[in-house]
Amino acid sequence: MSQAALTFRLATPEDAPLLQPLVQSAYRGETSRKGWTTEADLLVGTRINVAGIVEKINTPHSAVIMAFSPTLGDALVGCCEVLLKPSRKIGYFGMFAVDPTLQAGGIGRQVLANAEQYARSHGAEKMEMTVIWTRKELIDWYVRRGYAVTEERREFPHEELAKMDGENRALVEDLWFKVLVKDL
Fold first, then answer.
1. Ranges for the N-acetyltransferase domain (predicted)?
2. For residue 173, what are the domain limits?
3. Tell me: the pLDDT tens digits for 139-155?
4. Whole-angstrom Cα distance, residue 53 to residue 39?
């Protein structure tokens, strides 16, 4: 199914309660299993809380981008974060979420392209991201969009997971991130 063009806007702190369930549903819990980006077999608990989203929105050089579908009554269908690192001319792409019931329809490609354009328009020459190393299908999706898997490895933030709430825990050991980069 081909998705009609989305509309985008930057999130404000007041949007955080709307964004949190979208991010949660894309990665954790039973609802996430309706899509292909689920982490439900790797992690349980809260992926990010409302306060964490507000923090991202308020962080200097950070933008949380919201995607809306005009064909679905302007429903929120996706989001992401772009954290600019001006001294390195690089943007970091994170908090990427698409409604799991709408995944594999082109929304993610539009959100990613919009994030790359945002980063480029703010001086970034590269975009980087981290992906849990076991997520081969997700890494392959990014590679098809021009990202290269680097040799860099970043540790998984187990301490942040533990701070979120008492339900958060990893279901598998040896979680860490691969770093992917794309020239913009």
1. 6-166
2. 7-183
3. 999 999 999 999 999 98
4. 19
Q: Does residue 21 fall inside a structural domain?
A: yes
Tell me if the pTM is above 0.85.
Answer: yes
- DSSP string covering 106-163: SHHHHHHHHHHHHHHHTT-SEEEEEEETT-HHHHHHHHHTT-EEEEEEEE--HHHHHH
CA separation for the pair 145, 106 (Å, rounded):
12
The model's pLDDT over 17-48, given as tens digits with 9 standing for 90+, comes to 999 999 998 887 777 778 777 776 776 667 88
Query: Among residues 172, 175, 171, which one has the least CA distance to residue 157?
Result: 175
Whether residue 1 lies inside any domain: the answer is: no
Distance CA 148, CA 140 (A): 10
Query: Looking at the 3D structure of the chain, how many domains does it have?
Result: 1
Q: Which tokens go with 14? A: 């007041």
Task: Please say whether the beta carbons of 138 and 131 come within 8 A.
Answer: yes
Burial (CB < 10 A; 0-12, 13-18, 19+), residue 27, is: buried
Q: What is the CATH number of the domain that holds 12?
A: 3.40.630.30
Structure tokens at 92: 């970091």
Q: Does residue 2 form part of some domain?
A: no
